[in-house]
Amino acid sequence: MNDRMRIRVLLLRVLVLSLLVTLGARLWVLQILDGDHYRQVAETNRVREVVTPATRGMILDDRGQPLVRNRTSLVISVNRSITDRQADQGKAVLARLASVIGSPADELTRRIRFCGGQVRQPCWNGSPYQPVPVAKDVSPQQALAVIEHPDRFPGVSADLQAVREYPHGSLAAHELGYLAPVTQDQLDRQGDEKGYHLNSLIGVSGLESTYDDELRGVDGVERLEVDRFGRVAGTASTTAPASGDHLVLNLDLGVQQAAEQALQDTINSLGGGARTASAVVLNVRTGGVVAMASLPSYDPSVFVGGVSEQDYQGLSNPANGIPLLSRAYQGSGAAGSTFKIVSTATVLQDLGGQPDQKYPCAQTLQIGDQTFHNFDGESAGPITLHQALVISCDVIFDQFAYNAWLADGGLRNGRGPYAPPKEYFVRMAEAMGFGKATGIDLPGETKGSVVDRAGAKAIWAELKDSYCRRAKNGYPEETDPVKAERFRKYAAEACVDGYLYNAGAATQFAIGQGQYLAVSPLQLAQAYAAVANGGTVWKPMLARAAISPDGKVVRTFRPTKTGTVPVSQDVLAYIRSGLLGVSTEPGGTATGIFADWPTAQIPIAAKTGTAEVEGKGDTSWFASFAPANDPQYAVVVTIPDSGQGAQYAGPVAKRIYQAIYGVGQPAAMPGGKPPAALPRINADGTIAAAPAVGTLSPSVPAVPESGSPTAAAASTTPASTTVAASEHGAAGPAAAVATSPLVTSPVSTSPVGTSPSTAALAPSRAPP
């Protein structure tokens, strides 16, 4: 054997030895190092899971009345692990079943087929060993036809299953939310952590989403052993389902019903259609959401069993008002004069305003080439800030805002590199909760917008190219040539100096208008609640507690403080006094609304607002709290494209207060207070309603109900049906939509309680 042959043999030996070593190493990895893993995989390969969904917890109002519950439904299902082994793959069984339930056999075939890349609904997205529901809410006769003839329907079962039910239809739909099948992405990301299965239903909106973990419970799992042909050979293990916890809310069914009905009546009076409206009621002492309504709404039951593409398109169509969108916490806009609580606080706390000093409330204010008008061009002469709130004078706040803008450097966008702008109005708005999410326990909340000088510059930098392009090319899509040219000129100006925070923007901001301010009704209610309670900004919360199916309190949701208004108690008291004057003093913009209200017992502190919207009607706002001398509830109402605050939003708020306190009708909140105790859930699942609390505060006597002897003695004249028709309190046509008579009592023309001393209201800072 020559050397060449020896080398070849040696190389062959090395190669063979390397292969043997590699094979041995691989066998060691498979059998020793990763043996447990592959043993588990092998076990899994011969075990299939069948899931029994857990009964989802109910959602209850503050007194234990169900807002979302479960009902039993007779469901017929087909088990493909049985029918597929039949000679005709179950075609004959499906044909017989189709005749029983009145559904085409082809439709049943489509429902039990497995979903895939090329297979769309209807199809089955769950386990192939899971019975596939093909008919829900069948009649007992149809169910018996299957149960009594198992020989004719092998692989077909009929049993009772729990499905979601909404006993009040569309009531509070945006807050409650709905369920939908889990997506593949959710399975991949959270399947193991959350215990999701292929056929799991999870919350995708509202409280159903936020508290899905509490409500969903734990699904039961039956692990079936199968042979290599997929046939069931036995049961490896069984885990029973554990029902989810019940969620108790701060929301009150009676107040929610009153809010939605009042909004709907007003929308109907405006012509109905796709008009929108919203209302928020907060507990000012805790941040609890007592009611939150948004119209148009929708019935969550359309999502039970899967929503059709046509229905979903209708619910998200702007032509229908986008019913899926809650205007209460997901929509925002200019707040009009209701924003003046921010401006009053800024003037008194930061700009040197004096509580007793009088300021000119002229018809107009000239700033450069711009003229700013009072509402309806009215003039009241020299008045105090208290009176400016009462009659809603604009130009006083315009002047303060303009002076502050000048002190901040005017168009120089600041005082210089070493003296940044103070921007007192913006900072006060932010401190009261505007420009950021409130943190409510609902998904998709808007932040609104509060834009300062730096923010305006950042927005301009992002939009500059668009402005310049529009300045050159115009707006050919705009059919009105006058508007198109006006838009083009605006774009041309913005292209060059759109970063400048001009005087017009600053003055408009102070009266709740302009491009740099947008607030949601929930944010405004949070701010009014803070003014009412002495300066604490509470996080709005719908959930109050989670209670297990056997009645044990699993978790309570405590009030959460998120901030403090940087204003002295004397300034806050001054603002509260001015807001009370809005509904009680001569010239107050809401005196017409509450002319027949029992103010001595339940004083209302309020502010009307009328926000202008280009191309549409004014947005009507009304923000308030009551009782003014012992605040418990803040109520905010807004109705876009309607008119003045006193004409539309105000009467809706009045109806909400009627429902809360039982003025002319049974009280939704007995004693004017929320229930102190949680509702009790018995071991058998029945609910004992929470007991009513005591009477109103001693300083606010209980209001007698209509029809009682006390009520008859208190009122000998019919209730007034007129409300203010303008922002400034002029009496106008009847616009109230109340349906029951009010208890009448003399209207106080002076603030309830003691007014703050003027000496204590000295500004904390000198004017800039």
Account of the protein in words:
The longest helix has 31 residues, at 3-33. The chain has 768 residues and is of the alpha+beta class. The chain starts with a helix and ends in a 54-residue tail after the last helix. Strands 2, 3, 4, 5, 10, 20 and 21 form a seven-stranded mixed β-sheet that branches. The protein has a five-stranded antiparallel β-sheet with strand order 12-11-25-24-23, with helices on both faces. The chain is 33% helix and 17% strand. The chain is globular and about 110 Å long.
Short description:
With 768 residues, this protein is α+β, with helices and mostly antiparallel strands. The chain is built from 23 helices and 27 strands.
Offer a few descriptive terms.
768 residues, alpha+beta, 7-stranded mixed beta sheet, 5-stranded antiparallel beta sheet, globular, disordered C terminus
Number of beta-strand segments: 27
Number of helices: 23
Helix content percent band: 25-40%
Tell me, what's the shape?
globular
Q: How does the major sheet shape up?
A: 7 strands, mixed
Share in β-strands? 15-25%
Tell me the span between the first and last alpha carbons: 107 Å
Question: What's the gyration radius in Å?
Answer: 33 Å
